Amino acid sequence: MACKRGALIVLEGVDKAGKTTQCKKLVKALELSGRPAEMMRFPDRSTTIGQLISAYLEKKSDLEDHTVHLLFSANRWELVPLMKKKLEQGTTLVVDRYAFSGVAFTSAKPGFCLDWCKSPDVGLPKPDLVMFLQLNPSEAAQRGQFGEERYENSVFQNRVQQRFEELMKDTSVNWKVIDASQSIDNVHTSIQDHSLNAINAAQETQLGTLWK
Ligand code: Z5A
């Protein structure tokens, strides 16, 4: 009998919301409970495309805005065969940022609409669950100063937050909003509950396609 597929679980949220912390904790908890799980993150800076993106984020290079948007999308598409293989093998993927960040960040720039920004990511594997870690900017600021990377300023991050709110109106995506101001352990408990539900549901359904 073929094994049941893993779930595609995405964590999104504003800067410092705790996405990386929670992705790691979730993978560890799933593994301890005997459920195969792996973490991925976007951008994946290890690939050739990812290195172009990394240099751009670190302000070591400049790229035209449409071009870098398409590179972020290409960085997801290049990982799709691997993602599908792992999901089919029964591994749950816990992903730190995905296409929603791609759309929210580019559409926060002048002259970009949501529809144009979504188009290169149409057809990606659709997450079974997207958890948005909600944290207001003043609490995020208490977790550390913005770094030196591109986009790390509060005016831009506020526009990104508004774009995420527009994306969350799309009921074809299984969004859950998590209060990220709670303690790390309490946030983890909520995330784990939603994830176990998604993992169980994914076993009975086929992997979907995003925004189709
Ligand atoms: N980007 C894009 O433009 N287009 C795209 O398609 C994609 C991304 C995919 C990638 O940044 C940048 O690329 C990002 C979006 C853009 N730009 N910005 N801004 P990245 O992936 O390299 O880094 P990041 O995603 O920006 O990380 P982050 O947001 O700064 O952090 P986080 O992962 O959300 O948080 P954390 O590292 O887990 O925690 C931050 C600190 O808070 C740390 O000290 C923790 O110990 C602490 N923490 C975490 N949780 C708590 C709680 N609950 N209480 C107290 N303290 C906590």
From TrEMBL:
SUPFAM superfamilies: P-loop containing nucleoside triphosphate hydrolases. The keyword Mitochondrion does not apply. It is an enzyme of class 2 (transferase). Gene3D superfamilies: P-loop containing nucleotide triphosphate hydrolases (3.40.50.300). The keyword Ribosomal protein does not apply. GO terms for biological process: dTDP biosynthetic process; dTTP biosynthetic process; dUDP biosynthetic process. Keywords: ATP-binding, Kinase, Nucleotide biosynthesis, Nucleotide-binding, Transferase. Pfam families: Thymidylate_kin. Pathway: Pyrimidine metabolism; dTTP biosynthesis. Belongs to the thymidylate kinase family. This is Thymidylate kinase.
